[in-house]
Amino acid sequence: MTPPLSSYATEIYQRGLAGDAPPLPTDPSALEDAARAELDAGTFGYVAGGAGSGATLRANRAAFDRHAFVPRMLRDTTIRDWSTTVLGTAMPAPLLLAPVGMLGLLHPDGELAAARAAADVGVPIVLSTVASHTIEEVAEASGDGPRWYQLYWPTEDGVTVSLLERARAAGYTTLVVTLDTWTLGWRPADLDRGDRPMLRGAGAAIPFSDPAFRAGLAVAPEEDRAAAVARWASMFTGTALRWERLDLLRRHWPGPIVLKGVQHPADAARAVDAGMDGVIVSNHGGRQVDRAIGALDALPGIVEAVGERAAVLFDSGVRTGADAAVALALGADAVLLGRPYAYGLALAGEHGVRHVLRCVLAELDLTLALTGHASLAELRSDPDALVRRG
Ligand code: FNR
């Protein structure tokens, strides 16, 4: 029998008994503090920063604080199973690594380390278009592990189609299309340093290795990096992209397509009507629009609008397994983890990402077991699992 996900706690205590130093912090705030101490201020700001005054970042967390479990007793939850299949992808629990761009700024192994850790734990990685390694390199690091590809949708169709073809060929099964970042939000942490990493050429491994992108350059990126970066940056004016254009993606991607950044039930319904297979309820971790609603506050309405017809995934503000459990209890089919794994990567590469994933999975397991649930089906059929406060 496979050990429960919470066995990570047992491992940590056993190591403590053997006199080993504790691993990285399990408390997400302590993990963030450790990453702040490790990274230069600009890089830490790139990860931690939000849009404007940070009100959306705070709203994401405040939305979690308005929900609480009501634990139930004397139910048999000794044997639990959180495994699930989302859009054809099997996973040990409904958790994925969110697309986080430019991981090479945090650790030299960047997305390769994240992919190895995710594959080891069995959790899907969603690879960002603005990665520090190519689609093919990350696929190789991921091996037999599940992987999805996140598209920042370029305005040039030839490049879009080429990226999709590469991702398909490299074994990425679901396409995630991020809609909320067609242009960059107002981000004081980057502005105050006058530093936008993309304009320095960070996270350009995928376009620079792309034949359609390279075909539009007078000289190769290796010879004129600034011109290549300028061509890439100009593809994210975004305003040419419309609902009607989703058919381009549908024609060139045979697998499931999920739209990321959806926050209004009407947009979710429109996505499904347009033939999309799912949505990710997300506000990009509060990085795009200041004074937006907490993402968790958008979740129930979207589950109600499209939950029967499409997959509804969630991110923005998930720090712990208990947070993930709340989003699942509100009807999410799966949850994506963002900043915490970036901090784990910054602190200890592949080992750090694995640690963060195992912490979240272990706490998810314990939270649901201790609230009286042994499976996702039980959780979803329990209307009393959560109460809303305030
Ligand atoms: C992101 N996010 C993101 N999303 C995406 O679709 N493509 C990307 O390249 C990135 N890049 C990125 C970089 C950094 C440093 C962060 C923190 C986030 C958004 C990400 O997928 C997810 O929506 C948020 O991270 C969720 O918020 P929390 O839970 O991390 O606060």
Descriptive overview:
- The chain has helices spanning 7-17, 28-38, 41-48, 55-65, 110-121, 135-142, 157-169, 188-191, 205-208, 211-215, 225-234, 246-252, 265-273, 295-306, 321-329, 339-370, 376-380, and strands at 67-69, 84-86, 89-91, 95-97, 125-127, 147-151, 175-178, 257-262, 278-281, 311-314, 334-337, 386-388.
- With 390 residues, it is of the alpha/beta class.
- It has one domain (7-388): Alpha-Beta Barrel (TIM Barrel).
- The strands form 3 sheets. The protein has an 8-stranded parallel β-sheet. Strands 1-12 form a two-stranded antiparallel ribbon.
- The site of ligand FNR has 21 residues, from helix 3 and helix 16.
Bound molecules: ligand FNR
Radius of gyration over alpha carbons?
20 Å
- Count of discrete domains: 1
The first-level CATH class is given as: Alpha Beta
How would a crystallographer describe the biggest sheet? 8 strands, parallel
Widest beta sheet: strand line-up:
4-11-10-9-8-7-6-5
The class by helix and strand makeup works out as alpha/beta
Strand share of the residues?
A: 5-15%
